[in-house]
């Protein structure tokens, strides 16, 4: 497995002890996320927008229904930055200074390529769908030619990436720990699915399919 | 209340029916979030990083312990873009094309100002702390002069902002709804605090303080 590339901008300078260099850590963060934040430069100024994504091997696919203008700006081989962040908890230190968060974070830099070939777009859209709603690609109606044409999909190589992970209790000053007067610890944060809400226009006897019920039932 | 500014880049073009123009909607999204994604331009390329933030009136404060280099780059009055996104659920359409997400999203554009005055930095840091861990500012030890000097805080005016919110069931093609053969609906997503995990170095008899227990107990 190729380690994460040590280019200048993908080298972690702050919190070096939180940096990971194993590509498996990158995959794990990306595979656990649901949305990403895409950064592009428009007229010399940064623009950040949330959007959906999916991964296939070392390629990240970005969905273009949000921020289509930004995707066009970033599209023609322009540089983009993509961040996927999972917040795992609030770290309560004994001092305000040592308050922190537990998180898993991946940041990717690269040139985004807008997909034009129908087969390539379909593959990218499938990766995005599999990330957002596993099982939907084979269950729901596939895109028509017209729908596919109306969907922008970008691909981005994962070569230049960095991963940072913080976990565990606060790291406080020795004096504050020894004083023993202030509570410190972690309040863990989780994502939780509640029961599926059927569309009001469905026939009354149409059962919720297994790929949706299982996601709700089998959550951590 | 001043409405959100209709500048070119803060005018929503995609999903116009999802755009909100009331400043109260902006405040509600920002006040409900825990982390933001900060976009800066470094050597002409975009860079996106997650960080903590807080709001006081129409000023957003950004914490600088992560991405300090990027904050320096973006710091000297440089343009930044900040996004706060809350994911509320996965929208399962009858077609892949009409799969979507329910979300609340705020994007702010502006010039970030690095705070240098100690009082201003303290006020900014308090806003960030109040956002991340309400109650900690008065409970935990306040920053020393040295700690304050080691903390970067940026301020950003909220004038140029946009808000988008999607909620409710999928919006499908009439033919797909009429066919009545494919399940569609929403799988709602929530954030959930689990029980506080005390630091292993705490005295055994030190109780978890009310601002932490209440956050766990009173969650939605």
Textual characterization of the structure:
The first copy, chain A, is an alpha+beta fold. Chain A has a single domain, classed as Roll (Pnp Oxidase, Chain A), CATH 2.30.110.10. In chain A, 25% of the residues lie in helices and 35% in strands. Chain A has 7 helices and 11 strands. In chain A, strands 1, 2, 3, 4, 5, 6, 7, 8, 9 and 10 form a 10-stranded antiparallel beta sheet that branches. In chain A, a hairpin with a 7-residue loop joins strand 5 and strand 6. The radius of gyration of chain A is 21 Å and the shape is flat. Chain A starts with 18 loop residues before the first strand and ends with a helix. Chains A and B meet through strand 2, strand 3, helix 2, strand 5 and strand 6 of A and strand 2, strand 3, helix 2, strand 5 and strand 6 of B. Strand 10 of chain A pairs antiparallel with strand 10 of chain B.
């Amino acid at each position: 497995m190729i380690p994460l590339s040590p280019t200048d901008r993908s080298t972690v300078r702050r919190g070096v002890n939180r940096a990971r260099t194993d590509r498996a850590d990158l995959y794990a963060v990306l595979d656990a996320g649901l949305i990403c934040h895409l950064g592009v430069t428009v007229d010399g100024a940064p623009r950040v927008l949330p959007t959906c994504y999916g991964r296939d091997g070392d390629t990240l696919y970005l969905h273009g229904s949000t921020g289509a203008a930004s995707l066009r700006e970033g599209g023609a081989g322009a540089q983009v930055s993509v961040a996927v962040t999972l917040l795992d908890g609030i770290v309560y230190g004994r001092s305000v200074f040592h308050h922190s968060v537990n998180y898993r974070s991946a940041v990717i830099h690269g040139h985004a390529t807008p997909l034009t070939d129908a087969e390539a777009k379909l593959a990218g859209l499938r990766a995005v769908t599999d990330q957002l709603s596993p099982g939907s690609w084979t269950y729901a109606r596939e895109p028509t030619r017209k729908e596919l044409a109306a969907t922008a999909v970008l691909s981005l190589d994962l070569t230049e990436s960095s991963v940072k992970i913080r976990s565990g209790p606060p790291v406080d000053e020795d004096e504050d720990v020894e004083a023993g007067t202030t509570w410190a610890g972690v309040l863990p944060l989780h994502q939780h699915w509640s029961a599926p809400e059927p569309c009001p226009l469905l026939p009354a006897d149409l059962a919720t399919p297994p790929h949706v019920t299982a996601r709700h039932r089998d959550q951590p």
